[in-house]
Every structure is written in C-alpha cells, then in structure tokens.
C-alpha cells in the first residue's frame, strides 16, 4: 500500500481535477476501492474548485472510513454550487453517525429554498440520527411535496426508532409511494422501508416483503435491484413471497437468485430448487444449482439430482458447471458424486475440469492424488473474469496447503491487484496458509 500511496495518489489527484468524465471516473473507482488510504488525496482535492465535487463522490463511496473528511464536507454543504453542496451532503449521509458534527450545516440545508437540498438534508439527518433535527423535520413532514414529506417522516422514524407512531407513519407513507410513476421515488421508498425493517413487527415485515416481491420484475432495473437487495436484507420473512414468485415465468429467475443470495434462512425453498433442476430451461436449471450451493452442507438432500446433472452428457455445459459447483459447496455430504468429479477432473473441457477438481477437493480435502492436476487449473482460475471463480480458486489453493506453493507468485499478484476486496482477502489468507504450511514437512 505504500507504493500506492506514494506513487499512485499524486496521479489520481491530477486525474480527478480533469474535466473529462472518462478520465475522472476510473480514478474515482480506484480511490474508493482504496478506502481510507485514499483520504490524503481526497482531502486535498476538497480544497480545489475543480476537484471538490468528484472528491465528494469518492468519499461517499468510502463511507464511514471517510470520517476525517466531515469538517470540509460540512463546509462544502453550506456553500458552492448546488450540485457540489448536494454531493457533499450525500457524502456526509454515507459516512453516517460519525458525521453528526455536520448537523448544523445539514439543518441549514433543510431550511433552504432548494428542494433538492431539502431532500438530501432530510435523508442525511435521518442517516446521522441528529436529535436536534426532529422538530424541523416535523415541519418538513407537513410539506405539500409528498415525497419530501415522506423522506422527513422516515428521518424522524430513524431518529426515534422506539416511537411506534412515527415508524408506522413513515411506513404508511413509503408503502404508498411504492406505486409512484417515478422510478426514483419507488427506488427510494424501497430503500427507506428496508432501513426501517429492523424495528418492524413480524406482521409489518411480512407486508413489506410481499410488496418488495412485487417489484423484483419492475420495468426499471434500479427499482428491481433495490427490491431484491431489500428482500435479502429481510431474510426469512422474504422467503414465502419469493417462493410464490417461482411459479411465475416473469419473476422466477429473479426470485431464484434472491433466494440463493439469502442463503441459509431460505432453506425452506430447497424443495422448489431441487424441482427446478429438472426444468426444461437449461439456464433456469443452472440458476437453481447456484442457489442450492448457497446452503452448503444443508443442501445434502439435493445431491442425487445434482449428481445426475453432472453425469449427464446432454445437459448444457453451464448446467454441469453449476451442478459441480453446488456439490463442492455441499462438501463431504456430496461424497456419492466424488467418483464422477474425479473423472471429470481430467476432461478436455477446461472449465468443467477446474470446477470438478475444486469440488472434489471440497468433498475430500485429503485426496492428494488430485493435487498435481488441481494446482495448475486453480492457478488458471485465478485469472478468470468471474469473481466467484477467482474467490473459490484462492480458497481452494489455501486449503491444499504446501502442495500449492507454485501458486504463491500469482496469489501475491491477486492479493495486491484484484479489483475486489473479497478476492484480495481470500488470496492473502491462502498465502498465509501455504506459507505456514511450508514451514512444516509437506504431505507424503
């Protein structure tokens, strides 16, 4: 990280002062990914007129770790162009409660004549839970602008989560706005309801889960994504309405994906997923296998059907890949499939062979006969464009231990440069395991 700080940050500082978005945006993504290590250049950029807007965008992506930027962001929220003030307020909202000292600047924005600033300020005050904002927000909640009034009501509920009357009022307002003609309003309403879900009773959670499930096929993709994320956050209450959506051709793919993302709490949907493994639609069968994989060892009941798919010579390659992956995630309970997976580890289909050897090692980690073929394939998988493939390859190499020593140089590169923190972390953990293991005699 020292190299990044000393060598790369000055370059990024120049890039975010550029007026061309094609130059600015890649630099912003990199800075946001660096997190707190990027703060020196972003704090400096906040001082400059040409770069302060973009610096606020990156700080919003960094979130709570950007707390050292609260003071200059609060100052920017009070002056400058509207878009700069707006973005500074959103960055403060992203930082959350560590930015409470910015309360006075946000209250000033709430009292402005600019509706966009009022929206953002009400949202930020709710995120920061600024107690002094309750009375001003009460006045804003009486606004003729229904959406602004709803955001203010939501903010009051955030500040006073124990006040059932305020929470119920916010929920009622936001549920009504789920039917808005404006996608942005529907999207914001989903997010607002999701924020309040932690303080809702079981009946209310079931009601909003049903409403969210009705939006997973929304015409606007942002709304559909927000609804899916909200259902994942709800967890168990989302399972029943999502299982219903599996019967609808228009929603079953999205519902299957969301159930898989929910994971363990959605285990009740396993019979539906197993049934889907025999669906005529190859892509849907693959989706079902990936969803089953999320249950890990708890999906042992699906092993016979998954094994049938792996053994099939007529199933599409993608379906066999997904089935093999699911068997690997199930682990030792998938031992009945081990023979076929070992056989497929030598197939000419490189991707299938890679998944098969990974799955076989997950089922029987002590099978040293696989190590010689596993390491080269997993090294290649580390270069995959699929983040899940890279992640699982790194984990598998770590599990192999000393026999994975040839993969260390590539793992070190992945640990430094992979765009995803989760993959970098997995590579670092694999390096640690292999390095520790190399201090002891290798397995015979």
Task: Give the structural class.
Answer: mainly alpha
Strand content: under 5%
Shape: globular
How many strand segments?
0
N- to C-terminal separation? 38 Å
Share of helix, binned: 55-70%
Order of helices and strands: HHHHHHHHHHHHHHHHHHHHHHHHHH
Give the uncertain stretches in residue-range form: 1-9, 440-444
Largest sheet: none
Q: If you had to describe this structure to a student in words, what would you say it looks like?
A:
It is a single chain. With 444 residues, the protein is mainly alpha-helical. It contains 26 helices and no strands. The chain has helices spanning 2-15, 21-34, 39-45, 52-62, 70-78, 82-95, 103-110, 115-128, 134-140, 146-159, 164-177, 183-196, 202-213, 221-234, 239-245, 252-262, 270-276, 282-293, 303-311, 317-330, 338-344, 350-363, 371-381, 387-400, 408-417, 421-437.
In short:
This protein has 26 helices and no strands.
SSE blueprint:
Elements: H1 2-15, H2 21-34, H3 39-45, H4 52-62, H5 70-78, H6 82-95, H7 103-110, H8 115-128, H9 134-140, H10 146-159, H11 164-177, H12 183-196, H13 202-213, H14 221-234, H15 239-245, H16 252-262, H17 270-276, H18 282-293, H19 303-311, H20 317-330, H21 338-344, H22 350-363, H23 371-381, H24 387-400, H25 408-417, H26 421-437
Helix pairs in contact: 1-3, 2-4, 3-4, 4-6, 5-6, 5-7, 6-8, 7-8, 8-10, 9-10, 10-11, 10-12, 11-12, 12-14, 13-14, 14-16, 15-16, 16-18, 17-18, 18-20, 19-20, 20-22, 21-22, 22-23, 23-24, 24-26, 25-26
Keywords:
disordered N terminus; 444 residues; disordered C terminus; 67% helix; globular; 26 helices; mainly alpha
């Amino acid at each position: 990280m020292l190299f990044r700080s000393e060598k790369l940050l000055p370059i990024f500082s120049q890039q975010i002062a550029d007026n061309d978005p094609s130059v600015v945006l890649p630099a912003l993504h990199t800075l946001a990914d660096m997190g707190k290590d990027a703060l020196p250049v972003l704090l400096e950029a906040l001082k400059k007129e040409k770069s302060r807007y973009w610096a606020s965008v990156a700080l919003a992506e960094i979130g709570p770790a950007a707390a050292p930027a609260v003071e200059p962001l609060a100052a920017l929220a009070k002056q400058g162009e509207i878009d700069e003030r707006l973005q500074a307020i959103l960055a403060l909202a992203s930082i959350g409660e560590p930015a409470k000292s910015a309360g006075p600047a946000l209250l000033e924005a709430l009292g402005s004549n600019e509706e966009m600033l009022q929206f953002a300020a009400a949202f930020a005050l709710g995120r920061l839970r600024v107690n002094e904002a309750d009375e001003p927000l009460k006045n804003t909640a009486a606004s003729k602008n229904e959406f602004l009034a709803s955001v203010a009501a939501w903010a009051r509920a955030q500040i006073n989560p124990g006040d059932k009357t305020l929470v119920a009022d916010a929920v009622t307002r936001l549920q009504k706005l789920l039917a808005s003609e404006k996608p942005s309003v529907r999207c914001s309403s989903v997010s607002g309801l999701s924020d309040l879900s932690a303080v809702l009773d079981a009946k209310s959670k079931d009601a909003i889960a049903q409403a969210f499930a009705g939006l997973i096929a929304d015409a606007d993709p942002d709304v559909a994504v927000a609804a899916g994320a909200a259902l994942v956050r709800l967890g168990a209450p989302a399972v029943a309405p999502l299982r219903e959506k599996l019967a609808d051709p228009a929603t079953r793919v999205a519902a299957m994906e969301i159930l898989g993302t929910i994971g363990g709490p959605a285990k009740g949907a396993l019979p539906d997923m197993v049934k889907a493994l025999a669906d005529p639609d190859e892509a849907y069968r693959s989706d079902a296998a990936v969803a089953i994989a999320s249950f890990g060892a708890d999906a042992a009941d699906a092993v016979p059907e998954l094994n049938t798919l792996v053994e099939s010579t007529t199933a599409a390659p993608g379906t066999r890949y997904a089935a093999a992956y699911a068997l690997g995630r199930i682990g030792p309970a998938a031992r009945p499939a081990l023979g076929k997976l070992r056989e497929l580890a030598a197939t000419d289909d490189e991707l299938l062979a890679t998944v098969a050897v990974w799955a076989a090692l997950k089922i029987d980690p002590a099978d040293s006969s696989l190590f010689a073929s596993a390491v080269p394939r997993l090294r290649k998988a580390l270069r995959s464009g699929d983040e899940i493939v890279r992640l699982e390859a790194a984990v598998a190499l770590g599990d192999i231990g000393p026999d994975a020593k040839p993969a260390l140089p590539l793992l070190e590169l992945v640990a430094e440069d992979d765009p995803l923190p989760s993959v970098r972390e997995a590579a670092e953990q694999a390096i640690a395991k292999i390095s520790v293991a190399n201090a002891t005699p290798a397995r015979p």
